[in-house]
Amino acid sequence: MASTTYDESSFRVLKGLEPVRERPGMYTRTDSPAHIIQEVIDYAVDDALAGQARAIAVTVHRHVAISVADDGRGIPVGLHPEEG
């Protein structure tokens, strides 16, 4: 697998309605936990399809929680260098 840097600076931030016009299907309905879980699974699958991961595990816990783990790049969670 490639070892390039993948962090917050890897993202281009779109402003105003530009992101809706450019990628209308990439919006998360934050009022729906099931949709958020689907987005995390989709992200892991995208990494696998891009050759950045080989395994994805989805676990439904007894205490009404779900974990998604993979051996891919992960989702950057730091501050974007231009957006703070």
Could you describe the 3D structure shown?
The chain is an alpha+beta fold and 84 residues long. Helices cover 26% and strands 14% of the residues. It has one domain (8-70). Strands 1-2 form a two-stranded antiparallel sheet. It contains two helices and two strands, in the order H-H-E-E. It has helices at residues 18-22, 33-49, and strands spanning 56-61, 65-70.
Beta content comes to: 5-15%
Number of spatially distinct domains: 1
Structural class: alpha+beta
Quaternary structure classification: single chain
Rg computed from alpha carbons, rounded to a whole number of angstroms: 15 Å
Q: Can you give the helix content as a percent range?
A: 25-40%
Mean pLDDT: 82
Structure characteristics:
2 strands, 2 helices, globular, 84 residues, alpha+beta, single chain, two-stranded antiparallel ribbon
Show the helix and strand layout.
Layout: H1 18-22, H2 33-49, E1 56-61, E2 65-70
Antiparallel strand pairs: 1-2
Summarize the structure.
The protein has 84 residues and is an alpha+beta fold.
